[in-house]
Amino acid sequence: MRTPPQNKRLYKKALEIFTLSRSISNYLIHDLAPLQQNGNEDPNIYFTGDIIRQSDALVPNIINAENQVFQDDRIKHANSLIRITNKLYKNCERLEQSESNGKEFVVLLRKELRKFKRLQHSWIMTL
Known about the structure:
The protein is mainly alpha-helical and 127 residues long. The protein has helices at 8-32, 45-56, 58-67, 71-96, 103-126.
């Protein structure tokens, strides 16, 4: 059985990011779903799914890192969390370049990710 996360602020921020990602994705998908004039789909539509998948992986990595007995295993999960956060941030940047009315909401998600990264850095020092 898993224990609750030790760092509640990081955990809550990860949940906020997941909720925000889902909302943004649901909003953007309607703008990006129609075919372009040349008949192709907008390649940015895939980034909407990526941000959900990546934000969904934040909480399990936090819990996994905190539940590891050995420090090397905790660091391995923490590094995985850093990679996921960086990919999520990069996909947000890509979505900002899309032709959508909702791209200003992606700016909000990136702002929350920056806050998460600061919390994450402090959290890693405690592992």
